[in-house]
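## tool: complex_structure
## caller: assistant
## args:
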Amino acid sequence: MKINGNFNKLQDSYLFFNIAQKTSEFLKKNPGAPIIKMGIGDVTLPLPQACVDAMKKACDEMGVKETFRGYCDYEGYEFLRQAIADYYKEYGVDVSVDEIFVSDGAKSDVGNILDIFSDENTVLIPDPVYPVYVDTNIMAGRKILYIDANESNGFTPEPDYNVKADIIYLCSPNNPTGAVYDRAGLKKWVDYANAQDAVILFDAAYEAFIEDKDLPHSIFEIEGAKTCAIEFCSFSKTAGFTGTRCGYTVIPKELVREGRKIGELWLRRQSTKYNGTAYIIQRGAEAVFTPEGRAQIKENIDYYKRNTAILSEALSAKGIQYFGGKNSPYVWLKCPNNMKSWEFFDYLLTKCYIVGTPGSGFGKNGEGFLRLTGFGSYENTLIAAERIKNTL
Amino acid sequence: MKINGNFNKLQDSYLFFNIAQKTSEFLKKNPGAPIIKMGIGDVTLPLPQACVDAMKKACDEMGVKETFRGYCDYEGYEFLRQAIADYYKEYGVDVSVDEIFVSDGAKSDVGNILDIFSDENTVLIPDPVYPVYVDTNIMAGRKILYIDANESNGFTPEPDYNVKADIIYLCSPNNPTGAVYDRAGLKKWVDYANAQDAVILFDAAYEAFIEDKDLPHSIFEIEGAKTCAIEFCSFSKTAGFTGTRCGYTVIPKELVREGRKIGELWLRRQSTKYNGTAYIIQRGAEAVFTPEGRAQIKENIDYYKRNTAILSEALSAKGIQYFGGKNSPYVWLKCPNNMKSWEFFDYLLTKCYIVGTPGSGFGKNGEGFLRLTGFGSYENTLIAAERIKNTL
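## result:
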């Protein structure tokens, strides 16, 4: 019996553990210090009432023989997939119901999709990065190449045709940097992927935060993407589903590699290792797309975006450079006075009682940066902004 | 870009497709024939009211800021893990909360657990079998050995010390045969696994159907199992959660291979490729263990078991040999007159208007057998039993 030896190559992430530890040590020395946590990556507003109502109705249906539902389709109920397809139409993207696969969240899909690709593929990942892209490939023993996302390319790096890769990760709006690819930027990646038969794994988990009309919500707004991209999306940040768990993956029928339709391989994977998403949850997700649901999620997203605007304005006032802050819940700031990420973390904690997330925790190019988020409360965000303005 | 070539080695299962097709062809020729579907593997009774009420309460909590829950622990909420640990105590099994991992279902876990084991391991699978055990290992390219489960060993085969295996699948009560291992039988497997450093993947999805006091509900009732077994269980058949999705996996701390605690590897896998089970669903699962929930699931399980008893009695009356039928929702009958599985399927369809599941669809040792289930309605089961008695 051998374990998967690649697990021994995984590095444990102590990022959030270290943040928690430093914060609690500070509080021990400074009891009652009015600390504000601005590093949080989780939503804080409750679920939209439309979702709550839809799920309660679905609970009742499950308690009655005539409306009870057993095993659902592996790819999700058509009522939800149709609502998702209709949403895509708003951005001019034509995806059919059988190109949409519902799941318990984008994180599961982003990890599990790798089952259908050979371990011999080379992976290209931007740095800084959401650590899951890296760890899932280390587990499979794939060769990983990194591409630098940094100040000089505005954290939206372009492809380098000298680098050969089979699987490419793109996340836009980006976690952690908040940077967003425009159409021209994404088109370069689509052309590159098509040129070398690669597949782009496009993480669109934050698309609902985009407000600029010209920025693409979906990679399928880009010509040529249907032959080279898979898109992952989630209700987590769109509708506060981080603890309710629903997402979806879009695989166009045109996406074929080695003569196999990638969507068919994914359905085979899911029908073998997954048993569908709970009916109750799918009804909650469907409600996100109703007029009431749309209005309620807009209110919540606007609330978070007001927070990022307040933080951004405070940083601007102090002449501190940042990325994101708009079209994204994240504000990715350059630590002032050439401070390192943890150095500025300490400074911000001890001087402003603000807890951020050190950028170095997301990769080498994150060094010298720090992530703040708009997911806190309005009141605390106002106080945090005042402290930044008065202290830094 | 290469796909995972092992997907090309998978055989598509046409079992249920073929059943549906033959049934609809028969109905075309015999419009209005009062067909009864007894091949169904899905539950039909609604969720217990205790679960519905608990989930509706949880929905309301998610709609209020003060009680809203975001990301949950990867391993599940402690309230549910504690309830599961308490349930194990009833069978004299001592598992601690941090040995229990909640998920969206046993099928996901049974497939995903393989991520933590090397692809070089050899797998031992009883035949006939739930096809998922086979396909998940074909996807990873593992060598698969089969062990014969048949009439002569009562479909509970014993280990053969001449066969070397690293990963062993056991399902008891068994799908599709309904056979149940007794303590002595399981002890032989535990000893065998410990002797060769193998790990048993024990599927206990049907444990709630066991009524004989002497039969083990959990492999951890067997001495020595904690150093060689992982147990998978589910609320799907216990509480009608097939469309609600919740299960759990138990990995004892004593289970160590190559110096690594298997439970830690699993948590690392889950924290990287899974984001926890929905709060609402976990509250529903917790309610299964309340006094009301326990009473309600007992009523449902008794209803299904009354059906299997009716079917068993009809078969006995006709001198047809069967396995299962007790301690299991499945009745695994030997086709009379040496008929093959599909031959008897046709006979049963055309003479009795009953749809069963041909045993050959579960592996070579299933040939000559047919599976009926107790998951239909009481009324239909009575009619089916009458037809068997009057026609066969």
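## assistant note: Residues 13-42+292-391 of chain A form a domain with the Aspartate Aminotransferase, domain 1 fold (CATH 3.90.1150.10). The mean pLDDT of chain A is 97. Handing back to user.
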